[in-house]
Amino acid sequence: MKGQMVLVLAAIAAVILALASDASARPKIVVLATGGTIAGAQTSTKEVGYKSGTFKVEDLIKAVPQITELADLTGEQIVNIGSQNMNNEVWLKLAKRVNATLKRDDVDGVVITHGTDTMEETAYFLNLVVKSDKPVVMVGSMRPATATSADGPANLYNAVAVAIHPEARGRGVLVVLNDEIHFAREIEKQNTTQLDTFKSPNRGRAGVANTGAVHFFNKPAALHTTASEFSVEGVDVLPRVEIIYSYANLGRDFIDCAVEKGTKGLVLAGVGDGNSTDPALAALGDAVKKGVVVVRSSRTGSGLVVRNVEIDDDKMDTVAAMELNPQKARVLLMLALMKTSSPKEIQDKFSKY
Ligand code: ASP
């Protein structure tokens, strides 16, 4: 009888040990939550309305029980907002938290839940200031957590699968949604409501992730993370940069106003290849003379804006955004302005990043 007891206890101990060693073998992923539709709740399942940033990080993880088979997850709530309210202050807080988290030897990667509206901006910002090769994967959803056929749980599962994948290292910040993996620099939200809203129009997707099966197609095209010269260490405020949207009949008033209000940089969301009306171009030229750095981007949604095609950048001392859309050009210009206000040096950064 005594012998049997010993055997049973030994068996229990072996199971506990096996479980413990199994758990320690699983990658450790920290989920940093910021809100968005993935954490959103509908007021009524019959209506389209919902409020983003309702559920907490623990609820998001609990909604996908299978995820614990992939990794050991811990969650941290950074903010709980709709990403339309994302701002420089939260970016700095988030970036510092990502860096501190990835420095830990017991952390293998970070997954960030985020609203889709400004996902591409946050992703690109982090892509330039995170100082680690470990995977940083952003994820959101187009339907709120309470919707029929919510897309958040599958997206989160795939995001964790990407974050633990050995090939995810060194690819910069990645975004996972709708079974696709995108690079921070390439991704763009292109549809208001559809699940396949995210596209990478210039250089294509990084890969695909379906029910946790991950395939990478591509390498990032520009410098990022550990190769980037930008850092948020000791930074509390980013330089002010505004975006001016170009359209038929645009006058000079908003540009003059932005300069009067003390903006350090202006990004033109130009028509076509970064162009605008004569009065707007005259105002931008005056802004440059006052020391404001002007970057020409395009409102078209894809393609390059290169120097000296329709606009004489050499003469105007303006910067061409190359492949960056206006909202990402703003991100790079803010970071670049912390290093220099020389349009030539800033042009060089737009060619590199
Ligand atoms: N407005 C929401 C947000 O960006 C939309 C979404 O997450 O899809 O937070």
Characterise this structure:
This protein has 353 residues and is of the alpha/beta class. The chain folds into 2 domains: 26-227, L-asparaginase, N-terminal domain (Rossmann fold, 3-Layer(aba) Sandwich); 241-352, 3-Layer(aba) Sandwich (Rossmann fold), CATH 3.40.50. The protein has 10 helices and 16 strands. The strands form 4 sheets. It has an 8-stranded mixed sheet with strand order 4-1-5-6-7-8-11-12. Helix 4 packs parallel to helix 9 and helix 6 packs parallel to helix 7. It starts with a helix and ends with a helix. The protein binds aspartic acid (ASP). Aspartic acid binds at residues 36-37, 52, 82-84, 115-117, 140, 142.
Outline:
The chain has helices at residues 2-25, 57-62, 88-103, 119-129, 152-163, 253-260, 278-289, 313-316, 326-337, 343-352; strands at 28-35, 41-42, 50-51, 72-81, 109-113, 136-139, 173-177, 180-183, 188-189, 198-199, 207-210, 213-216, 241-245, 265-270, 293-298, 319-320. With 353 residues, the protein is α/β, with parallel strands linked by helices.
What is the class of the largest domain in the CATH system?
Alpha Beta
Query: What best-fitting shape do the alpha-carbon axes yield?
Result: globular
The count of domains is: 2
Mean pLDDT value:
94
* Small molecules held by this entry: aspartic acid
User: Gap between N and C termini, in Å?
Assistant: 72 Å
Number of helices: 10
Proportion of strand residues:
15-25%
Overall CATH architecture of the largest domain: 3-Layer(aba) Sandwich
Instruction: Tell me the Rg in angstroms.
Output: 23 Å
Number of strands: 16
Q: Please, what is the CATH homologous superfamily of the largest domain?
A: L-asparaginase, N-terminal domain
Percent helix: 25-40%
Structural class: alpha/beta
Unreliable stretches: 15-21
Order of helices and strands: HEEEHEHEHEHEEEEEEEHEHEHEHH
What is the CATH topology assignment of the largest domain? Answer: Rossmann fold
Strand order of the largest sheet: 4-1-5-6-7-8-11-12
Major β-sheet profile: 8 strands, mixed
